[in-house]
Amino acid sequence: MPDQTDKQTFSDEEALDFHRIPTPGKISMAPTKPMATQRDLSLAYSPGVAVPVLAIAADADKAYDYTSKGNMVAVISNGTAILGLGNLGHMASKPVMEGKSVLFKRFADVDSFDVEVKTTDPDEFITVVKNIGDTWGGINLEDIKSPECFVIESELQDLLDIPVFHDDQHGTAIISTAGLINAVHIAGKRLDEVKVVLAGAGAAGLSSIALMKAAGVKAENTVICDRDGVVYKGREHGMDQWKAAHATDTPFRTLAEAMVGADVVLGLSAKGAITKEMVASMAPNPIIFAMANPDPEITPEDVQSVRSDAIIATGRSDYVNQVNNVLAFPYLFRGALDVRARRVNHEMKVACAQALAALAREDVPDEVAAAYRGRKLKFGPDYIIPTPFDPRLIWYIPPFIAQAAMDTGVARVQIDDMDAYRDALRSRVDPSAALMQKINSAVRGGADKRIVFAEGEEPAVIRAAWGFKQAELGTPILVGREDLIRQNAAEAGFNFDDMGIEITNARVSGHNVEDTDWLYEKLQRRGYLRRDVQRMINQDRNYYAATLVAKGRADGMVAGVTRNFNMALKEVQRVLDVDDTLIGLSILLAKGRTLFVADTTIHELPGAEELAEIAIKAAETVRKLGRNPRVAFLSYSTFGNPPGDRSEKVREAIRILDKIGVDFEYEGEMPPEVALDPKGHPAYPFNRLTKPANTLVMPAIHSAAISTKLVQALEGATLIGPLLVGLEKPVQIVSLGASVSEIITAATFAAYDAGPAFQGTGLTSSPRPPAALVER
């Protein structure tokens, strides 16, 4: 059952540093138009801005055409119910609201920023938002306590002409309704016949029962319970207008009574609210959604101890069938914004739930299943809700919401070609954001890999190993003195005995003589005496760690934290051989684009043959990372103009590839603007690249290293690597003084290289990945 994927994989200090370094916060603004010249500024501001101002003054809806309104959502809170932590004030909610904005961008390419309102008075809150609400295309209300949230959302929806959506209510409602639709089907029942009991009459609970009624559950078949018992018609104590709307004529007065013979129970209350005895009293094939967080009303283990026929969902990621709001709100707003909807109505929410239910019934791609340790996900009791990182969500769900908005008359514009709309949505997926998720999922989905962290005594390495282990990416092996490692772990706040991490060093390994003999045989004709090799094994962590990998006692290694790259690489190469071509491949993640750059570490001034070999190795690696390589050989010249020695070597590399007959697109020599911008392609009709290049082969190591680091220094991209590609065994070398995150990333690639869930797709192997993994 549990796979512990929700365990905290970071310390409090790391969480604070994440939000503070290098720039405080998680969001920033970037202009979408050039601002380089006086003319640009004149168009952006005065006098050019007067033209759209007058157009919008004549027709307010033109704001969708001339401003960012149409792709902008505000996340608004007063901090009265923060993440289950309670009323901590409006400013304490800001990190959460920024996080919600990040999720909008990450999952649905919706721009968003946060607004924290300093009031707990609902009327004052409504007044503030009413007067600024037209700024955005939609408003996501968040972390506002019940029952005020009902009043705030309802009134703002009436006062504003844009969607106003309280995610704490409706997000849970949509996902749980999707799960219910599928669970009822699997249980062989009907929505209009099932008896549903709700435990917890708060915002999420009441919204869930309301949406389930809209989806087909009959009102007379529902019973709602709060802390005072059943909400029945005529009850006076602890009632309000929202509970009264769902009161039923029922003889039941307690949750235990209501659950006798019930088909479904929805838990949105607190830990322990549902007992084994209650579950045992339910109808055959019961459906139990225990969604309280962090602890459900009853654990799946307790349910299964009394009912083997139950279908179970929770709000947690360490159980199957997680009710996760991120499955709904990004895509709901994506669809609503794309038709410029005036509101989010019941029909749109039902459409979202039905779409999610339908997606769960589709065949699941391999890369999605990999996140579940390689288990083949298939529609059934353990898979009734899609997973949050399913790449199909962005193009599958929004069209249903958009269609419902159009059908119910709340859309300002119509989408005439839904197929074209789906294609446009596919292009909004950020490949850079998805890359590491795909790699992580593949590693989690494969066999557990043992990764050696060579500098195991370093505090940053200890923290990285702990994070690597907690994220279930593999088993870390720390090389170093056990007493010092334990001391440093304790100072970092870790109980080492609970970490499940191995410690080793040559002197206590039991393989000292064997390892020394093996390495001496390898190096004896390269000028090394046996005592030299003995010293290398005993005293140098890189030699010992590489020997562990070479001898099969570990699957991969990470080094470089305390030693520069070249020195670490030389030490590793004395132990491990190069397969064919050794290169450094850097990954640049920038503005929704993923670029692979080679060679960034090994070949200083490659000749033509070396450039061809670098291209082949880079393309092979890019394909194994899930992308179709399109290789551009970069140069200062464009197809011979101006001529030069380095560009001639590039042209010769092209001729070599032409003779070999490789199976990937390539072209050159060309500057970056021709390689990356399709607008430049018509000037060169002979250009063989069908799309912008994603793999860049640099003419020399200095150009490769300088260009990637320059872009990173200007905060124009995230840089991963360089990855070391081409050794006989998986080794990654990080930069001197690497951060915890960089070490974890390197270890993850080493584990992926050692054999991910997709057999034969490691960086050192030759077969291609299955079609499901490769980006088309």
Automatic annotation (TrEMBL):
Output this protein's name: NADP-dependent malic enzyme
**The entry's keywords:** Metal-binding, Multifunctional enzyme, Oxidoreductase
Could you list the residue ranges that cross the membrane? none
Family (UniProt): In the C-terminal section; belongs to the phosphate acetyltransferase and butyryltransferase family. In the N-terminal section; belongs to the malic enzymes family.
Q: Which PANTHER family match?
A: NADP-DEPENDENT MALIC ENZYME
Name the domain of life: Bacteria
The reply to whether Ribosomal protein figures as a keyword in the UniProt entry is no
Extract the SMART domains matched here: malic, Malic_M
The record, for InterPro entries, names: Malate_Decarboxylase, Malic_enzyme_CS, Malic_N_dom, Malic_NAD-bd, Malic_NAD-bd_bact_type, ME_PTA, PTA_PTB
| Domain Malic enzyme NAD-binding, residue spans | 169-406
The root-end lineage is: Bacteria, Pseudomonadati, Pseudomonadota, Alphaproteobacteria, Caulobacterales
Pfam families (UniProt xref): malic (PF00390), Malic_M (PF03949), PTA_PTB (PF01515)
Keyword Oxidoreductase attached:
yes
Tell me the cofactors it needs: Mg(2+); Mn(2+)
Q: Please report the stretch or stretches of sequence annotated as the Malic enzyme N-terminal domain.
A: 24-157
